[in-house]
Specification:
With about 80 residues, the protein is mainly β. It contains no helices and six strands.
């Protein structure tokens, strides 16, 4: 049985991104210098990869229901993407 995913406000390290198609697009691993979210996903170009995702296109964020919600903190800025 799949774990319940809770909605929460704001991008958080390790949180799941709900993309424009309404499905979880991957896990947030940081942001790039342009401010885009960096998302680790398993179906991006037929590979596991980290891809930039422009802020404003996300429908929301999710967190596993059996874990404590993360505290608000700035995302690490990574050189990737």
């Amino acid at each position: 049985m799949a774990a319940l995913l809770l909605s929460f406000a704001g991008a958080s390290l390790g949180g799941a991104l709900l993309g424009p198609l309404g499905v979880v697009g991957g896990r947030i691993v940081g942001a790039n210098r342009a401010g885009h979210l960096l998302v680790l996903g398993g179906n991006q170009g037929d590979a596991v990869s980290i891809s930039p995702f422009p802020r404003g296109r996300e429908l929301g964020y999710r967190w596993p229901g059996n874990e404590l919600l993360p505290e608000a903190a700035p995302l690490p800025v990574l050189a990737h993407g």
